[in-house]
Amino acid sequence: MEGWQRAFVLHSRPFSETSLLLDLFSESQGRVRVLAKGARSRRSQLKGALQPFTPLLVRWSGRGEVKTLRNAEAVSLALPLNGTTLYCGLYVNELLSRVLEQEIPFSELFFDYLNCLQELAASSGSPEPALRRFELAMLGHLGYGVDFLHCAGSGEPVADAMTYSYREEKGFIASLVVNQRSFTGRELRALCEREFPDAACLRAAKRFTRMALKPYLGGKPLKSQELFRQFVPKKKPDAASE
Fold first, then answer.
1. Angle at the Cα of 168 from the Cα atoms of 194 and 191, rounded to 5 degrees
2. Are 93 and 87 in contact (CB under 8 A)?
3. Diameter of the chain by CA atoms?
4. How many CA atoms lie within 13 A of 66 on its CB side?
5. C-alpha separations of 172 from 85, 161, 185, 195 in Å
6. Which residues contact 23 (CB under 8 A, 6 or more apart)?
């Protein structure tokens, strides 16, 4: 693969005294592991560019599981993520690193990822809607098909006030039981449209994506979530929210 293509660094770790082993998310090749020789040396021109959230143009070569990075240029400055949005960006990067197989193209997902980072960078409120939209988009690209708009039992369109229970490999079935797997028709419509008009719909989206992503992530916890809990203090609930 000798041509230039757009990419982001998902994860990097030291390799030998002067090199870096990188997981890249590229537009046309998906997740690719590359060795950046000499990238840690003082004279390396790559050191500043090979950072998460920096849009890159890259070239690599090689046929094995680990390619050799030939060139990398920053297209622009890194997207300005800090504080909570930085942890959200790390979470999205870890999701891609854990879920995507190597060298499988996900061109549309690449732009969903870019849109998510841009939305996080521009956000002045909660980052939750951007994260939920990205998770739902990623599940769709992975082939996780679920019909949010019809009852899996009857085939009837969901009714806003009715409650539906989620069942893996089947979908949402009308039920009078209310638990963690229950969603109203209104919440399912919000999931389908990836728009969350209120806190209830946003909480429902988080419950669903946690359930849907669990088979892909297995039992191993996400490091980014542990970091978030460790370094970002919980907000004290005010009287109105208690």
1. 10
2. no
3. 66
4. 7
5. 32, 14, 10, 19
6. 9, 10, 11, 12, 31, 32, 33, 97
Dihedrals phi, psi of 171, to nearest 5 degrees: 125, -145
Locate 26 and state its tokens.
Answer: 């590229």
The whole-model pTM stands at: 0.89
| Tokens 């892909």 sit on residue | 216
Give the strand order in the sheet containing 171-174: 171-174, 163-167, 182-184
Residue 20 contacts residue 40 (beta carbons within 8 Å): yes
pLDDT in tens, 127-171: 999 999 999 999 999 988 899 999 999 999 999 999 999 998 899
CB count within 10 Å of CB 73 equals: 13
CA dihedral 132→90→31→70, nearest 10 degrees, is 150
| Residue 26 identity | S
* Residues 6+ positions from 230 with CB-CB distance below 8 Å: none
181 Rama sector, left if φ>0, alpha if ψ -120 to 50, beta otherwise: alpha
Radius of gyration of the CA atoms of the chain, in A: 20
At position 138, the amino acid (one-letter code) is M
